[in-house]
Design goal:
Order of helices and strands: EEHEEEEEHEEEEEH
Strand order of the largest sheet: 3-6-7-8-9-10
CATH class: Alpha Beta
Number of helices: 3
Radius of gyration: 15 Å
Number of strands: 12
Largest sheet: 6 strands, mixed
Shape: globular
CATH superfamily: tt1808, chain A
Helix content: 10-25%
Distance between the termini: 16 Å
Strand content: 35-45%
Length: about 160
């Protein structure tokens, strides 16, 4: 179980965690997949899990997975893996903040319902691009056309 950590959302501190094992397993799998499929010459860089990302002077977040631009530390992709205790901060508060900061992509990974919501920025708001489940394939143009079968991501076996 990972230790609690702090984020600052619009000037308000928020203690997150502790983080449970199933959450961390999903993070492990996603980080491995992105690391294995992000091209070496990519304009994007994968940050360590829950690295601090300062979006504005009053907002510092720690996404479960983050891709930033190499020559400009703006966030390209934020991934939030949900736990029962943190659904509202991730699906409402942080989602609205990320959209207003024009973060191009957001994935919300829900282990309880075994789905992923994919969002893209559209004029300061997010547009739901897809909800992936079961035998759907997760992909992103930044990842060399790689695909991740959701049934493998959410499988109960260990890595």
């Amino acid at each position: 179980m990972a230790d609690p950590y702090e984020e600052v959302l619009e000037g308000r501190p928020l203690i997150r965690g502790p983080i449970n094992g199933p959450h961390e397993l999903l993070c492990d799998r996603l980080h491995s997949w992105v690391a294995d499929n992000l091209p070496h010459n990519s304009a994007l860089q994968l940050l360590r899990r829950r690295s601090l990302v300062k979006l504005r002077p009053d907002t510092e977040i720690r996404p479960d997975l983050a891709l930033i631009r190499r020559n400009d530390p703006r966030l390209y992709l934020a991934v939030e893996v949900l736990q029962n205790s943190d659904r509202h901060p991730d699906t409402v508060i942080k989602k609205n903040i990320l959209a207003s900061c024009l973060v191009p992509r957001l994935w919300i990974v829900d282990g309880r319902y075994q789905n992923i919501e994919l969002y893209v920025t559209n004029g300061g708001r997010f547009r739901l691009e897809a909800i992936l489940t079961d035998n759907d394939l997760l992909s992103d143009s930044a990842l060399s056309g790689a695909r991740y079968l959701l049934s493998d991501l959410f499988a109960r076996r260990t890595i």
